[in-house]
Amino acid sequence: MKIWVDADACPGAVREIVLKAANRLVVHTTFVANKALFLPQAEHLYFVQVPAGPDVVDGYIIEQAITGDLVITQDIPLAAELVNQGVVVISPHGTLFTDGNIGDRLASRNLMSDLRDTGMITGGPKPFGEKEKRAFANAFDQALTRLLRAT
């Protein structure tokens, strides 16, 4: 079981939670981004820098993650692809993506994207705060515990 982090837009608080768990449990954890990211030195922590470009990080994670792995991403199309491959996926906000909810999430994401493109909706996502941090920590702990028990 490996942890993969789509690190391009990963909040710092999420990165810290993942690093603490990876170090405590000594779990192979890879952060993937198109810009440099510095991690503490440990044999089980990895950083992969991919070339800049749309969906390059996504493509790398799709190629590498396998059933039984855990991926952290807020990218809904990436999550949809991974869920279809049997990978456990959670968002930095603590949402567990499943076969049962990923279709609705993808449809909502596409609708919101269309509304933003037409100018009907402006602004970005809500700020990442303590509530989101707690939700992520709980979802991450549950998913990680379940996956580690299965191995």
Output the structural class.
alpha/beta
As a percent range, the share of helical residues equals 40-55%
What is the rounded Rg? 15 Å
Average of the residue pLDDT scores: 90
Can I get a quick summary?
The protein is an alpha/beta fold and 151 residues long. The chain is 46% helix and 15% strand.
Descriptive overview:
With 151 residues, the protein is an alpha/beta fold. It has one domain (3-150): Rossmann fold (3-Layer(aba) Sandwich). The protein has helices spanning 12-25, 56-64, 76-84, 102-117, 130-150, and strands spanning 3-6, 29-33, 45-49, 70-72, 88-90, 96-97. It has a six-stranded mixed β-sheet, with helices on both faces. Helix 1 (12-25) packs parallel to helix 5 and helix 3 runs antiparallel to helix 4 (102-117). The relative contact order is 0.17. The mean pLDDT is 90.
Top keywords for this entry?
alpha/beta; single chain; 6-stranded mixed β-sheet; 151 residues; 5 helices; globular; Rossmann fold
Question: How would the blueprint of this fold be written?
Answer:
Blueprint: E1 3-6, H1 12-25, E2 29-33, E3 45-49, H2 56-64, E4 70-72, H3 76-84, E5 88-90, E6 96-97, H4 102-117, H5 130-150
Parallel strand pairs: 1-2, 1-4, 2-3, 4-5
Antiparallel strand pairs: 5-6
Helix pairs in contact: 1-5, 3-4
